[in-house]
Amino acid sequence: MKTYNLCIVGGGSTYTLGFLKSFVRLRDEFPIKKLTLFDIDKERQEKIGKYGEILFQERFPQLEFMYTMDKREAYEGMDFVFMQMRAGGLKMRAEDEHIPFRMGLIGQETCGAGGMAYGLRSCADMIQAVHDIRTYAPNAWILNYSNPAAIVAEALRREFPDDQRILNICDQPENVVRSCSRLLGCDWKDLDPVYFGLNHYGWFTHMYDVHTGEDLLPQIRNRIAENGFLPQDAEQRDQSWLDTYGMVQTMMHDFPDYLPNTYNQYYLYPQYKAAHLNPHVTRADEVMAGREKRVFDECEQVIAEGKLGDRFHTISDAHAEMMIQVAESIAYNRNDRHIVIVENNGAIANMQNDAMVEVVCELGMHGPRPMRVGNIPQFYLGLLVNQVSCEKLLVDAYFENSYQKALQAFTLNRLIGDAKKAREVLDALMEANEGMWPKLQ
Q: Which residue numbers are catalytic?
């Protein structure tokens, strides 16, 4: 079986540890020859990197592993580059979330004003990163799951229109599928979903049993109505994530046609969510106090002891596992089905062709082949067209340095929905992001 060289951009991310363990666990399914971590934050990456050295020495000694801050070392000779960049770091994520809250708006990482602030930062960093990768690895597959994926995908579509080896993807639709398997008491691989939408804004129209062909969505709907909805890894989740999944019951009560992506709650109930979220402790605060502390505590303990001990566990990391399986499907031309972000081109028949939509695709060595869903009902079309317009205007603002386009984008967004509020929060975020955004004029 052919082996591959792979780089993770964002080597100091709290998600990287899950990847390192997953590469050990899945080394027979997707054998890699060389793994490199790349980050601009030396301190964060060094802790993850030293942990990795100990892990691979014990569990995967034949793997060539390194971590670096040098672009050429990171990218040269790579077959796959996994992108998990966080432009501005967790410090700016906290600003994205807290500033809107102070104005009575939802503060969220990828949706609303906070998501757009993050998007403008990410456009610049992602575009530069792809240019760097193409300098040293012109044929590598770039698998991007950096947020906000919808805005990043639109910017990359414009900057690299002929690059067929950039794939934008998010794990949340698969997390919902896995959570349905928990609800039904089956293996998630036995479920065959039909899905349409945008990143963090979509619906499952069917959930088929791969063996019998039965559509299990009516059963899922009934069970959610009776018992609520939990993430597949509920025991490992912070309370805010349990609350997020809990809102699926409300969404399906009000709009029972389809099973929603959990992020839809922000678009469907913006006033309710703004009033019920804790403006003093946002998701960024939870991550810094929770996952980030757990990950770096584990790293420091392993580094101090010089051995992994019993800290390696075989519980799957769904996020890392999905990304590795996506790479497998491309590498070995398996044409497995994954929900990914692609240019529409008729996948959703009654949406504009150049929208970056999220649908089920067969994925092989020639990239994604979207599975068409036809026309979608007017209610869902109206919601999505509004958001596509918002995202396109924001990317216009990035490329044109246009304050007017940014204001239009903020005004259109359902989490803001008022031009005076849009200007207020835009101006505050401009000030907080000085030097990280384009100069809007």
A: 171, 263
